[in-house]
Design brief:
Elements lengths: L2 H16 L16 E7 L18 H9 L1 E7 L4 H10 L3 H4 L13 H7 L3 E7 L20 E5 L15 E2 L2 E2 L8 H15 L5 E6 L21 H25 L6 E7 L8 E4 L2 E4 L7 H4 E2 L1 E4 L8 E8 L3 H9 L15 H4 L10 E5 L17 E5 L3 E4 L4 E3 L17 H15 L17
Parallel strand pairs: 1-7, 1-8, 2-13, 3-4, 3-7
Antiparallel strand pairs: 2-11, 2-12, 4-5, 5-6, 8-12, 9-10, 14-15, 15-16, 16-17
Length: 449
């Protein structure tokens, strides 16, 4: 045999034996549980992402992760930031443990505790906003299962979150330059944390400051003096996407892509002052309202080691689903004492199954103690259940979202369609499965108008 071909056969045989020459997932260490990165943007609905159909906003990094991962078409948060943050961290509907805006009541079990118990290094950076209100005690980040943090909106920080920001790290305020940009300060910290802990499993939670108002130019803006809020919002969405790309590149540079699950979502819909072009329509942001644009959010999951990619799924996801999903990803058991309202959507991400959800339930009462009747984000106590098409409120109003996305005209109670009757029955059963009022609220605050 020709010496060259004999050598080539030996090399090919070695590659086949090792599999690393042909198997793209061979870098995964099956003895180590995966790292998890959870990124939650602030105040941006599904209509602002290219993978969801937007041509106005540029989100190339997230669009690629959606193409190479799984994109959920029906993910729902709560309509406002603190309620969503409480639910996503604790795996509970707000009806069970939400008390007031700005507060995560003490003693709550969070997903960071889950990772801490599993031996993970844990870090959080970005926006906290859970330290308490004038009426209710809250929780500090160090009490929530995080080894380390770099955060804005803690008791020690001042107002700015973007330029010349006020940021606290592990109990001390940072001394930052006048041209420091908060989102960069958070991102650099998390990348440094991952680099320092790349030899062990880590959990990163990044509740971003972007793209919440004030709407200001970013470091990448063409005009750093721009005052048009619509243009600045476009730039902020683009910078948010760039940050996601930076984090993913850092994971790749550490050769951890095959060991890492990256999940991206948002805490609620877009600010009401923003109008977006979407599928030939102009959509006004509906943050803090209960119509679809108030809590219909993006959800993109990227886990290359599963080999499952390019999927758009209609499975319903609720923010209470994140805690059981994260437990499922790392093969951990939730404590018996923890009651969760969620279901794992890891089987959907991994391509091994579907979510059992037939409906999503939402309880919304963001400021129970608010005295100002004109507060823009004040809302009366309300609850609703929905599936991909129908939405039923606790007062009996039923809407067909496929024809009435703005919820202008409820379906008649005597509607004769068998499909509508079945939807009403199913969603009423969902409402009946939860308390009518917040379990931790005193009777005196219920339904304050």
């Amino acid at each position: 045999m020709n010496t060259y071909f004999h050598f080539l056969l030996i090399v090919l045989g070695g590659c086949l034996a090792l599999t690393s020459c042909t198997n793209p997932s061979s870098d995964k260490d099956d003895t180590r549980p995966p790292n998890v990165i959870l990124i939650m943007a602030d105040d941006v609905g599904f209509e602002a992402f290219g993978s969801y159909g937007s041509t106005q906003y540029k989100t190339p990094n997230l669009d690629r992760l959606a193409r190479e991962g799984v994109r959920f078409a029906h993910a729902y948060s709560n309509p406002l930031c603190t309620p969503s943050r409480v639910s996503i961290m604790t795996g509970k509907s707000n009806v069970r443990n939400y008390v007031d805006f700005g507060a995560l009541t003490p003693g709550q079990y969070t997903f960071a505790h889950l990772f801490e118990e599993a031996g993970y290094a844990t870090a959080i950076a970005g926006k906290w906003q859970l330290q308490g209100s004038n009426k209710v005690a809250g929780t500090l980040p160090a009490e929530s299962g995080f080894d380390t943090y770099r955060l804005w909106h803690t008791p020690n920080t001042a107002r700015p979150r973007y330029w010349t920001p006020s940021i606290e790290q592990d109990g001390r305020l940072l001394e930052l330059s006048d041209d420091a940009y908060g989102p960069d300060v958070f991102t650099e910290y998390l990348i440094q944390f991952m680099e320092a802990n790349q030899d062990r499993p880590f959990f990163v939670y990044y509740p971003m400051a972007l793209v919440h108002d004030p709407f200001l130019p970013t470091p990448a803006s063409t005009n750093r003096e721009e005052e048009d809020i619509q243009q600045n919002f476009v730039d902020m969405v683009g910078y948010m996407d760039d940050i996601v790309g930076r984090i993913e590149r850092a994971v790749n540079e550490m050769s951890l892509a095959e060991q890492t699950v990256l999940i991206f979502t948002s805490d609620n819909g877009t600010h009401r002052n923003i109008v977006s072009e979407f599928e030939g329509q102009e959509i006004r942001g509906a943050k803090a309202t209960t119509i679809d644009y108030g809590n219909h959010v993006p959800l993109i999951a990227y886990a290359p080691f599963t080999g499952y990619q390019g999927e758009v799924v209609d499975d319903l996801v609720d923010f209470s689903d994140f805690l059981p999903t994260l437990a499922d990803i790392i093969g951990a058991e939730l404590p018996d004492s923890i009651q969760t309202d969620g279901y794992s959507f890891w089987p959907v991400i991994s391509g091994e199954g579907a979510s059992p959800r037939e409906w999503v339930y939402t309880y919304y009462y963001p400021r129970p103690y608010a005295e100002r009747l004109d507060h823009p984000f004040r809302h009366f106590e309300v609850r609703f259940a929905q599936d991909q098409r129908y939405k039923l409120y606790g007062d009996g109003r039923l809407f067909d979202l496929s024809m009435d996305i703005m919820e202008g005209t409820p379906l008649p109670l005597e509607e004769g369609s068998a499909e509508v009757a079945a939807a009403r029955l199913k969603l009423q059963s969902a409402l009946d499965a939860f308390p009518e009022h917040g379990e931790m609220l005193p009777d005196s605050v219920h339904n304050r108008k």
